[in-house]
Amino acid sequence: MKKMIYVFLLAVLAATAFAQTNKIAVGLDTFPLLKGVIYTDFDQDNNLIALSPAFEYLVAPHFSAGGVLDLWFGKASDIDILYFGLTAHGRWYYKPGLDGLFLDAGVGFNALSVDGKAPDTDHAGFSGVTASLKAGYKLVFGKHFFVEPSIAYVYSKSGFVPVTPQGWQPGLIIGGTF
Question: Where are the alpha helices (DSSP H) in 2-156?
Answer without folding.
Answer: 2-19, 30-39
